[in-house]
Amino acid sequence: MGLNYYQIKENVLQARKLVIRGTSVAGSGHPGGSFSMAEIMGCIFYNHLKYDPKNPEWEGRDKLILSKGHASPGLFSNMAVAGYFEESQLDTLRQFGSKLQGHPDLKCPGVEFCGGS
Predict the structure, then answer these.
(1) CB count in 10 Å sphere of residue 94
(2) Which among 35, 67, 103, 111 is most buried, taking Cβ atoms within 10 Å?
């Protein structure tokens, strides 16, 4: 994507807001773990990764592996800001049948790996 510093900073702030929104609506989750990786995720997502949210299976994409699975709200928030799905989907975090679970799930378009930890 190659955004500048101020655009990345704005996206990181929006992603943090979505982490709070999602974990608050869910009544559970790990916002601290997501916050501790917010800036690095922002730099990776908006300045280094090659991806197409409209075509998550694009062969030329980079693959992000989040081994810190309990920080999935941070991953999902950045994915929403990047356009993989509507930001309102964060309201379904950790709900039965949602693509947005407590750890990354391959049912969610754009998720490449189901991590633990």
Answers:
(1) 18
(2) 111
Per-residue pLDDT of the chain (117 residues; tens, 9 = 90+): 678 999 999 999 999 999 999 999 999 988 999 999 999 999 999 999 999 999 999 999 999 999 888 999 999 999 999 999 999 999 999 999 999 999 999 989 999 998 765
Q: How far apart are CA 90 and CA 98, in angstroms?
A: 10
Both structure tokens of 77: 């928030």
Residue 54 token pair: 């409209």
Locus of tokens 């994507």? 1
The position carrying tokens 């949602």 is: 98
Is residue 50 within 8 Å of residue 61, measured between CB atoms? yes
DSSP-derived secondary structure for the chain: ----HHHHHHHHHHHHHHHHHHHHHHT---HHHHHTTHHHHHHIIIII----TT-TT-TT------S-GGGHHHHHHHHHHHTSS-GGGGGGTT-TT-S--SS--TTSTT-------
Tokens for 46?
Answer: 């908006």
